[in-house]
């Protein structure tokens, strides 16, 4: 058997390697910092729209106008965040996660129900055991204290 990580431990056959698409973002450009600050300002504006905008803009007295402004601020802020290196890396992570989710072997309904009942049984048994220990310790403390 080989200790080589690129070979299967049982059959010593080579394991197909694929290029790792994950990349570490080591540094950000000054433009990224500006985009992050603009996005944070837009998120803060979205939080304050409902309270302050109607005093400065008459059409904002309508709730639908305020909801539209809040949604516009959030959408533009998310778009700015997507334009950063970290934002593109996050979107790549979401896509890779979706691919990995397709590879998961999900349990059948019967396995899920059986496992759920087993967990419920263990929880009930543990609760009864803890209650018994608590009762015995409480009785022992009353016996000692008086």
Automatic annotation (TrEMBL):
First and last residue of the signal peptide: none
Compartments where found: Membrane
Gene Ontology MF terms: protein transmembrane transporter activity
Chain ranges passing through the membrane: 33-57, 63-83, 119-141
Entry superkingdom: Bacteria
Pfam families: SecE
GO BP terms in the entry: intracellular protein transmembrane transport; protein secretion; protein targeting; protein transport by the Sec complex
Swiss-Prot/TrEMBL keywords: Cell membrane, Membrane, Protein transport, Translocation, Transmembrane, Transmembrane helix, Transport
Family to which this protein belongs: Belongs to the SecE/SEC61-gamma family.
Complexes and interactors: Component of the Sec protein translocase complex. Heterotrimer consisting of SecY, SecE and SecG subunits. The heterotrimers can form oligomers, although 1 heterotrimer is thought to be able to translocate proteins. Interacts with the ribosome. Interacts with SecDF, and other proteins may be involved. Interacts with SecA.
Known function: Essential subunit of the Sec protein translocation channel SecYEG. Clamps together the 2 halves of SecY. May contact the channel plug during translocation.
Protein name (record): Protein translocase subunit SecE
UniProt source species: Acinetobacter calcoaceticus
Source lineage: Bacteria, Pseudomonadati, Pseudomonadota, Gammaproteobacteria, Moraxellales
Gene that encodes it: secE
């Amino acid at each position: 058997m080989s200790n080589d990580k690129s070979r299967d431990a049982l059959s010593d056959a080579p394991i197909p390697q694929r290029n790792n698409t994950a990349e570490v973002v080591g540094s950000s450009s000054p433009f990224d910092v500006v985009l992050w600050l603009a996005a944070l300002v837009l998120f803060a504006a979205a939080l304050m729209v409902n309270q302050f905008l109607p005093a400065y803009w008459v059409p904002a007295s309508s709730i639908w106008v305020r909801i539209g402004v809040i949604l516009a601020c959030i959408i533009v802020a998310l778009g700015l965040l997507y334009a950063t290196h970290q934002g593109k890396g996050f979107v790549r992570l979401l896509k890779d996660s979706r691919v990995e989710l397709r590879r998961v072997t999900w349990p059948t309904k019967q396995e899920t129900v059986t496992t759920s009942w087993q967990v419920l049984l263990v929880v009930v048994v543990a609760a009864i055991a803890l209650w018994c220990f608590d009762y015995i310790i409480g009785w022992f403390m009353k016996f000692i204290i008086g």
